[in-house]
Design goal:
It is built from 6 helices and 12 strands. It has a 5-stranded mixed β-sheet, covered by helices on one side. A 3-stranded antiparallel β-sheet has the order 6-7-10. The longest helix is centred in the middle third of the chain and has 17 residues.
């Protein structure tokens, strides 16, 4: 692939043609926040935390879905971008009922981490306080819609990695919700394989193992790249039950 040269935060850097801006930025050791993006899943530009400024346009661009091009000049942490990121995080906290003190992911939550990094100590917007349900009908897992930020990682991993497409999104705007099997209780889903991939990629306490108590849940994302690498190298075979295993 051809090598490209561009400027990031007034520093000249080189990358590979076709590479995403987010990938190139992180290669330079620059920390750019994301909540919907996860290596191994298709980029969708949903959370907008990875927005960057490009010199040639006033429009802010999501780094995860923008391809790096020759001659680009971008800024990643301008005053405007930091202000926008804080606003986005505050709106996420205001939209649903994120009570960190009683959450299974307290201390390990990606939403909580990003808020702390940016110095968010209060929310300027009115809390919507919607009455959202929990679904604990599954034998192993539960979903609390109050803590969901609609990143759709669960939808993506279930579709593109597990191949079940149990999860989807229903509704519009603030009324959107992730659902299983055309809005059936999770426990009655006929497509769910109970693999737990959706739980592990969820950035908050929205999806959790049943029985986990406050600050007890630990999620790991490294399994995703491990599976994808194995598939690429053809290390996996399908057993009679339909699950993957090493040769």
């Amino acid at each position: 692939m051809a090598v490209i040269t561009m400027t990031i935060n007034d520093e000249l850097v080189s990358g590979v043609e076709g590479q995403s801006l987010l990938s190139l930025i992180r290669e330079q050791g620059i920390e750019l926040p994301t909540l919907c993006h996860l290596e191994g899943l298709e980029a969708r530009g949903g959370c907008r935390l990875c927005l960057v400024e490009m010199q040639s346009t006033q429009r802010l661009l999501p780094a995860c879905t923008t391809t790096a091009q020759e001659g680009m000049s971008i800024q990643t942490h301008s005053e405007r971008l930091v202000r926008y990121r804080r606003m986005i995080l505050e709106l996420l906290f205001a939209e649903r009922n994120h009570v960190c003190a009683v959450c299974v992911m307290n201390g390990r939550c990606e939403l909580q981490d990003e808020a702390a990094k940016i110095g968010m100590d209060h929310v300027r917007y009115d809390y919507l306080v919607p009455e959202l349900p929990m679904d604990a009908t599954h034998d192993k897992f539960a979903i609390d819609h109050n803590r969901c930020i609609l990143c759709t990682r669960c939808v993506s991993v279930c579709d593109s990695v597990e191949g079940a497409h149990t999860w989807d999104v229903m509704g519009r705007g603030v009324n959107s919700r992730v659902i299983t099997d055309l809005n059936q209780p999770w426990g009655s889903s006929r497509s769910c394989t109970s693999c737990g991939k959706c739980v592990q990629v969820c950035p908050t306490g929205a999806l959790a193992n049943k029985g986990s108590t406050v600050a007890e849940m630990v999620k790991r994302h490294d399994f995703l790249q491990w599976i994808l690498d194995g598939r690429e190298k053809k290390q996996w075979v399908m057993h009679n039950g339909g699950s993957e295993g090493r040769r």
